[in-house]
């Protein structure tokens, strides 16, 4: 089943759980990265679970007007924003994901860098954070991002450029240099 396209898997998923599992394995890493950037690493697992439960429940309503991955990313963003609306303002920091390397010092450095990057992403305006996360973490092209966020491609490019510049400045204020 791994050779099948998303469209083929969607058709099979109504009657075969294995088809849905392939869709889940195929898209979960990018959805997790997106959720981590929006709600923080500590809540990303919950969001991913919520997204795939919702997708499984509503898969038969997917009309195919857009690519499945585009629809999935929109569902993920909606789940992230629903979680953020429920949170208290002081509860925005999630528990960081464990990092596994052979060196405790390296683990600590990686953890600090992830926390700092997560903090910096949360400082961006909503539209920039969304566009940067979809581009850098989900690897989507500008046209797909434009479709997801409902903006023109040029607007998406501007948001990404402004977001990257703001991230660079924020990270420099925290002592993170390019290439770190």
Automatic annotation (TrEMBL):
Q: Which family does it belong to?
A: Belongs to the sigma-70 factor family. ECF subfamily.
Q: Report any one BP term from Gene Ontology.
A: DNA-templated transcription initiation
Q: Check the record and name the NCBIfam families matching this protein.
A: sigma70-ECF
SUPFAM superfamilies listed in its UniProt record: Sigma2 domain of RNA polymerase sigma factors, Sigma3 and sigma4 domains of RNA polymerase sigma factors
The record's listing under InterPro entries reads: RNA_pol_sigma-70-like, RNA_pol_sigma-70_dom, RNA_pol_sigma70_r2, RNA_pol_sigma70_r4_t2, RNA_pol_sigma_r2, RNA_pol_sigma_r3/r4-like, WH-like_DNA-bd_sf
Q: Name one Pfam family in it.
A: Sigma70_r2
- Provide the RNA polymerase sigma factor 70 region 4 type domain boundaries: 120-167
The organism is Deinococcus ruber
The record's keywords, sorted A to Z, are: DNA-binding, Sigma factor, Transcription, Transcription regulation
Question: Per its record, how is this protein called by name?
Answer: RNA polymerase sigma factor RpoE
The molecular function GO annotations come to: DNA binding; sigma factor activity
Gene field: algU
